[in-house]
Amino acid sequence: MQRNESRKRNVNACHLAWVQIIKVPIALCCAAILLASCDSMKTEPESTGLANAAEETSSNESRAVKELFLERYFGTGLHFGSKDGEKGRQSYKVTKLPGRAEILGVYPVKADEPCHLVEMAVSAATEGFDIGNFTQALEDRAVSFWQVPWMEVLLSPDGTEVASQANRIDKDSKLLRGDVRIAFFFHYLNTDGPFLTPFGDLAIPKPTKRPARLKMRKYEAPD
User: Fold this and answer.
1) Which of 21, 88, 103, 178 is the most buried (most CB within 10 A)?
2) Segment 161-215, tens digit of pLDDT
3) Can you tell me the distance from the alpha carbon of 133 to that of 129, in angstroms, rounded to the nearest whole number?
4) SS (H, E, C) the chain
5) Lowest mean pLDDT among 30-39, 67-76, 213-222
6) Contacts of 89 (CB under 8 A, 6+ apart)
7) Among the listed residues 166, 142, 163, 164, the one whose alpha carbon sits nearest the alpha carbon of residue 152
8) Contact at 8 Å (CB) between 176 and 120?
9) Burial environment of residue 197 by CB neighbours within 10 A (0 to 12, 13 to 18, 19 or more)
């Protein structure tokens, strides 16, 4: 009896030892899994938060750059460097010149920014004029933000050929005396508003398809 009881105690002791041996790694595994889950739960929001913060920062920077661009340039082909804080039509202070100007046609242009090719005739101009003074008023902007002609050229009397490019016109104002015909690109043209010139305000005709004789005027975006 004692031997049997001793054998039973040994068997029970062995079972107990094996149970203890098995419990330890199981407990360790459970602890490791629990810790990993906690770390994952902790890390994921942090990484997600960092990613969202980086994305928001990038978006804010892009928006800031875009707003700065619009504020400084408001398109392309502008007057630059004016310190005049006066805004609207009253800030257009250009000496009125003798002569007469007329817009012969306004032709839409395919470009990244809204743009038209403008053809004009100036007659009886007794002195050279600055094509850069042809513009439109922006009531909420100073003159330095108003659009000006881009890639201006002097045309032949019948408007079929380019007589002089912009660089030559700038050097010799005599080319713009008497009766002349000019063409230039103009961005963000407001066809409902007046066009300001040294010869007076001009009404803008309805845009029409560009005539074949002016196909040679190829638009190039400002740098």
Assistant:
1) 103
2) 999 999 999 888 889 999 999 999 999 999 999 999 999 999 999 999 999 999 9
3) 8
4) CHHHHHHHHHHHHHHHHHHHHHHHHHHHHHHHHHHHHHHHHHHHHHHHHHHHHHHHHHHHHHHHHHHHHHHHHCCCCECCCCCCCCECHHHCCCCCCCCEEEEEEEEEECCCCCEEEEEEEEEEECCCCCHHHCECCCCCCEHHHCECCEEEEEECCCCCCEEECHHHHHHCHHHHCEEEEEEEEEECCCCCCCEECCCCCECCCCCCCCCHHHCCCCCCCCC
5) 67-76
6) 137, 139, 196
7) 166
8) no
9) buried
Amino acid at 116: H
Token pair 């997600």 is at which residue? 48
Question: What single-letter amino acid sits at 181?
Answer: R
Q: Can you tell me which residue has the tokens 């629990």?
A: 34
